[in-house]
């Protein structure tokens, strides 16, 4: 890893090759076809276009607004992150082999064919127009005193306007002068505001029939973030991974969120690989060359796998309900028939299942993970379970010569789809580092956790940070995080119902909370769910209740009181009795109104 102060940027030869050379000398202008590079995503074909009027240009280095082919994605791209399309076409096709990438290139070629056809038609029509104008000029040549006076006045106006850098001609004739196409396109004209001129309309990027309705693939991170009440239309929920959104407010929608990784050691003894907001210049993820397996395609697992595929990882998938694998097979994943087969054919296998029983069955059951473990095989459990369960699984994996890492994730379905999860890890430190490109693809931050107690090791003992983080640390931390979240959700529901029964406006309560110190995306989204009666699961109620139960047991094990969590747990149990288990956790609200 290069020590606590090292950055990962120095380990990205792909980014250096992209930024190398004399890119600044390339002359680009409106309408040019280009290869655009944004953040960690592969180069993608696009066209330089005019941005929406309400979309401000970011400050700093020179950049262009690019519309990407085969998608509905667009973003401000710095000039050093752009390459001319034709000059680098063969180079890009060699290094990108994805299905969506090929569809995007096909869309470019289709656009070029259409543009060429239109140019030929336009050339033919221009000749006809010239002949008609010449004939018209012959007929309209002034032959009377009045017409001569009109012409003289017209010429006087032309000369005056020429002094101002503008030249006007009589109606029906074409515009002439030395202006560039870009300047002319930016001028106001008499046509209806907002409607593009005919020649611009002809050059709009077509959506190929082969890619229509397909989500944006590796460039999906450039989509502008939709609001909760305005879901993306015709978008596969498994492949919605955004940076920019067409429906976001203009004040913030141009801010590209990418990941600049750094290593830091915190005073608590935990080590984190953290992500920071930055610009597109920070480079891309270089996917590991190791074969990746993934077991469990639920709400969280589906989003994780989609992002692994987008970032170029080789992934083999398995799910108890095999039909859930079909979507990912279409996107380039391989199918494993059993957990044992996946583990035996892959270098690192991740798993994300619902609870301790499912985690144990996956490893110890028939054709389970343990049967595929051989010396050197790696297993990463991302399930939220108790420390005893994960310790037992680690022991059996290591006993077969395997390597083990626990890495539960904090987030929900939306954050999983967006690749913005928080990963908490403990166990084999070397394996944690081997998973770095995977963690970058699925999350915004990852933490390697060691016990704070370990800081007081006797002098001369091996430093804890150089070896394994005690298995169970991540499980404990994850349960504490979800305990806080679940208790907070129950308190939100309690407050909204109390407002209702006392004659107060629930919407006003939300507005007040959103203006105070409690304001957060979580608060707003969950309150909106309640106000709209929309309890589509983003985090299952039954799972947050499970986590509360396990957190209370964790407190009992160390004789620590958890009365708030215990009270919240009872409310969730009542909600489960009202058949709310498979709804979102915000459905705990219904426990208060029945």
UniProtKB/TrEMBL annotation:
Q: Which SMART domains does the entry mention?
A: PWWP
Kindly list the places in or outside the cell where this protein is found, as annotated in its UniProt entry. Answer: Chromosome; Nucleus
What Pfam families has UniProt attached to this entry? NAD_binding_11, NAD_binding_2, PWWP
Task: Give the record's keywords alphabetically.
Answer: Chromosome, Nucleus
Q: Which biological process, per GO, is one annotated for this protein?
A: transcription initiation-coupled chromatin remodeling
Region: Disordered; residue ranges are 114-209
Ranges of Basic and acidic residues compositional bias? Answer: 114-167, 184-204
Quick one: a GO cellular component term? nucleosome
Q: What is its main location?
A: nucleus
Question: What residue stretch is flagged as signal peptide?
Answer: none
The record's annotation in Gene3D superfamilies points to: 2.30.30.140, N-(1-d-carboxylethyl)-l-norvaline Dehydrogenase, domain 2, NAD(P)-binding Rossmann-like Domain
- Tell me, what is one Gene Ontology molecular-function annotation carried by this entry? nucleosome binding
| Domain of life per record | Eukaryota
Subunit details: Homotetramere. Interacts with MAPK14. Interacts with KDM1B at nucleosomes; this interaction stimulates H3K4me1 and H3K4me2 demethylation. Binds to mononucleosomes. Interacts with GATA4; the interaction is required for a synergistic activation of GATA4 target genes transcription.
What is stated as this protein's family in its record?
Belongs to the HIBADH-related family. NP60 subfamily.
Q: What is the name attached to this protein's record?
A: Cytokine-like nuclear factor N-PAC
Naturally occurring in which organism (per UniProt): Canis lupus familiaris
């Amino acid at each position: 890893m290069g020590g606590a102060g090292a950055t990962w940027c120095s380990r990205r030869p792909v980014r250096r090759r992209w930024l190398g050379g004399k890119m600044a000398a390339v002359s680009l202008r409106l309408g040019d076809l280009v290869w655009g590079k944004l953040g960690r995503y592969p180069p993608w074909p696009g066209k330089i276009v005019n941005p929406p009027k309400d979309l401000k240009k970011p400050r700093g280095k020179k950049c262009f607004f690019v519309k990407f082919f085969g998608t509905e994605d667009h973003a401000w791209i710095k000039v050093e992150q752009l390459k001319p399309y034709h000059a680098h076409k063969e180079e890009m096709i060699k290094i990108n082999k994805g299905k969506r990438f090929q569809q995007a290139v096909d869309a470019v070629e289709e656009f070029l064919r259409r543009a060429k056809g239109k140019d030929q038609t336009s050339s033919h029509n221009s000749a006809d127009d010239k002949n008609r104008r010449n004939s018209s000029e012959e007929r309209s040549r002034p032959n009377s005193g009045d017409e001569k006076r009109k012409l003289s006045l017209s010429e006087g106006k032309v000369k005056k306007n020429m002094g101002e850098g503008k030249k006007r001609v009589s109606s029906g004739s074409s515009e002439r002068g030395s202006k560039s196409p870009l300047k002319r396109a930016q001028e106001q004209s008499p046509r209806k505001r907002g409607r593009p001129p005919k020649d611009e309309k002809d050059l709009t990027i077509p959506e190929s029939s082969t890619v229509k309705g397909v989500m944006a693939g590796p460039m999906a991170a450039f989509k502008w973030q939709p609001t909760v009440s305005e879901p993306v239309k015709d978008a596969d929920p498994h492949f919605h991974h955004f940076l920019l959104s067409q429906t976001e407010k203009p004040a913030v929608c141009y801010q590209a969120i990418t990941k600049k990784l750094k290593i830091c050691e915190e005073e608590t003894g935990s080590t984190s690989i953290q992500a920071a907001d930055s610009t597109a210049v920070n480079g891309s993820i270089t996917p590991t060359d190791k074969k990746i397996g993934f077991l469990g395609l639920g709400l969280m697992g589906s989003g994780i796998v989609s992002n692994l595929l987008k970032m170029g990882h080789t992934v083999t998938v398995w799910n108890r309900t095999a039909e859930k694998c079909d979507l990912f097979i279409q996107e380039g994943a391989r199918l494993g028939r059993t957990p044992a087969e996946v583990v035996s054919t892959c270098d690192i296998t991740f798993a994300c299942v619902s609870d301790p029983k499912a985690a144990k069955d996956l490893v110890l059951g028939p054709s389970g993970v343990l049967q595929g473990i051989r010396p050197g095989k790696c297993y990463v459990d991302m399930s939220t379970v108790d420390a005893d369960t994960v310790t037992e699984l680690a022991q059996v994996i290591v006993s077969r010569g395997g390597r083990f890492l626990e890495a539960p994730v904090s987030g929900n379905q939306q954050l999983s789809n967006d690749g913005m999860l928080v990963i908490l890890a403990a166990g084999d430190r070397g394996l944690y580092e081997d998973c770095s490109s995977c963690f970058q693809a699925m999350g915004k931050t990852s933490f390697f956790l060691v016990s704070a107690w370990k800081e007081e090791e006797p002098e001369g003992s091996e430093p804890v940070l150089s070896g394994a983080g005690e298995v169970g640390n991540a499980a404990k931390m994850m349960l504490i995080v979800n305990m806080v979240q679940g208790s907070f959700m129950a308190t939100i529901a309690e407050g909204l119902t109390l407002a209702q029964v006392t004659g107060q406006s629930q919407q006003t309560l939300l507005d007040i909370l959103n203006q105070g110190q409690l304001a957060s995306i979580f608060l707003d989204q969950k309150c909106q769910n309640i106000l709209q009666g929309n309890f589509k699961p983003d985090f299952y109620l039954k799972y947050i209740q499970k986590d509360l139960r396990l957190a209370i047991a964790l407190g009992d094990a160390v004789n620590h009181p958890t009365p708030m969590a215990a009270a919240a747990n009872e409310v969730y149990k009542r909600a489960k009795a009202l058949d709310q288990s498979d709804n979102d956790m915000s459905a705990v609200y219904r426990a208060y109104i029945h």
